[in-house]
Design brief:
Blueprint (H helix, E strand, L loop, with lengths): L1 H19 L3 E6 L2 E6 L16 H13 L4 H4 L2 H15 L14 E2 L2 E2 L3 H4 L3 H16 L7 H11 L2 H10 L3 H10 L3 H11 L5 H12 L6 H14 L4 H9 L5 H45 L20 E3 L5 E3 H4 L9 H16 L4 H10 L3 H10 L16 H4 L1
Antiparallel strand pairs: 1-2, 3-4, 5-6
Helix pairs in contact: 1-2, 2-4, 4-6, 4-7, 7-8, 9-10, 9-11, 10-12, 11-12, 11-13, 12-14, 17-18
């Protein structure tokens, strides 16, 4: 055993040097001594040398990845094999069962390995799992997340699997995992941590608790409804539809609906006040336009709206009640004070008109919006469903001209 362990240690060190160190080659040509450095060997080529010694393979790969390799060499596909192999070794159960422990003693010419040497301690296993998580969180580690996820599922590495599911944005899979393991507290925590950006998680969780049998889930349902209500994550009708399929008492839903109705009534009052204000402004502008067309306008400003000095001819007056020296206005033909806001409204109008034919954008917004009716009403309010109406040309007959 001692001989085998020494041989394994030496082999590991030699292969580590081959893959991490520069080996100078000295040559002499025309009396000039030249030193050339050979290229490092690729570590993935030597993985098969450790087929019967995974413990030493782990040590070899640790030495390789810890060494400061050039970025060009560590970014290729071959080096990703090194990372993923090391990650799998960290997850392997009882790694020392298949290797000869160098601590084992040779007794009376026989190779006797104690149970303590043969089996890996729980502390060593925990340490390897800690190293596995360090690989997953290392931004410089070159591994395929999907392949790492498969390995986590294979070896039942819960912490790594949940981390990768979140990294890959597979939030629904996180919910299903907690459902299958009946980890209700973790399910709620995952929704609170990730559900604000993925509202389907709340709908999935609520559906699960409403349809589950064999236990009273009222506490979890109330927690979900409270959080959904506070952040307005799900439309009330969807909550009613989900809870309508269960045997949950209406008391759990009553307070939620009462609060949502109050919020909706307040929103209606705010909208009505805004509508009234818009109507008042619209009537005021119509009156001003009518007065401009029917009566003369009196410009009473005696100071330039830009330099604020006394107006001197030549002067330019605008219907917006701004006046400027001709020298202050330059070659501009519109009010420099009001034109930015006017152009902003014109650009907004052009954007809205451009959205009329973009049905895919409307469908995408309708699909991901928590309140689909709000999206539709918004489009109606901006007249984006109205087609371009071209009135027929007006023709006059001889009788009309008479």
């Amino acid at each position: 055993v001692s001989t085998q362990s020494t041989w394994a240690e030496e082999t590991t060190q030699v292969l580590k040097d081959v893959c991490t160190a520069w080996f100078p080659r000295i040559s002499e040509e025309d009396g000039i001594i030249q030193t050339q450095y050979g290229k490092r060997s690729r570590p993935e080529l030597y993985i098969t040398c450790f087929v019967d010694a995974p413990y030493y393979l782990m040590r070899f790969l640790e030495l390789v990845v810890m060494y400061d390799l050039d970025l060009e060499e560590s970014n290729d596909d071959g080096f990703s094999v090194v990372w993923i192999t090391l990650f799998e070794l960290y997850l392997t159960d009882n790694l020392r069962r298949t290797v000869t422990n160098p601590n084992a003693e040779q007794r009376t010419g026989e190779e006797n390995i104690s149970k303590e040497d043969e089996e890996e301690s729980e502390h060593d296993k925990i340490q390897r799992h800690v190293k596995a998580m360090c690989i997953l969180r290392n931004s410089e580690a070159k591994y395929d997340p999907e392949q790492a996820l498969v390995l986590c599922q294979k070896y039942g590495f819960k912490e790594g699997m949940l981390y990768l599911l979140e990294k890959l944005h597979l939030h629904s899979e996180i919910i299903y995992y907690h459902m299958e393991n009946n980890d209700y507290v973790a399910l709620i925590d995952a929704c609170k941590r990730l559900g604000d950006n993925n509202r389907d998680m709340w709908a999935q969780a609520l559906t699960f608790f409403c349809q589950a049998r064999g236990k009273d889930f009222t506490e979890y349902i109330y927690d979900i409804i409270t959080h959904v209500d506070q952040k307005d994550l799900l439309p009330p009708m969807l909550v009613v539809e989900i809870m309508g399929r269960s045997d949950i008492k209406f008391d759990v839903l009553q307070s939620f609906l009462h609060r949502r109705v109050q919020v909706m009534m307040q929103s209606i009052e705010d909208d009505q006040a805004a509508i009234a204000q818009f109507k008042e402004n619209s009537n005021k502008m119509e009156s001003e336009l009518k007065a401009m067309g029917q009566s003369a306008q009196l410009f009473q400003l005696n100071k330039c709206s830009r330099c604020h000095s006394a107006l001197e001819l030549p002067v330019m007056h605008f219907f917006c009640k701004h006046s400027f020296h001709h020298r202050c206005l330059g070659e501009k033909e519109e009010c420099p004070i009001c034109s930015p806001e006017t152009r902003k409204l014109e650009y907004k109008k052009e954007e809205l008109e451009a959205l009329v034919d973009k049905h895919d954008r409307f469908s995408e917004q309708l699909k991901h919006a928590p309140d689909g009716f709000g999206v539709i009403s918004n489009y109606f309010g901006r007249t984006l469903f109205n087609g371009h109406y071209n009135p027929p040309p007006v023709t006059y007959s001889d009788e009309d001209s008479d």
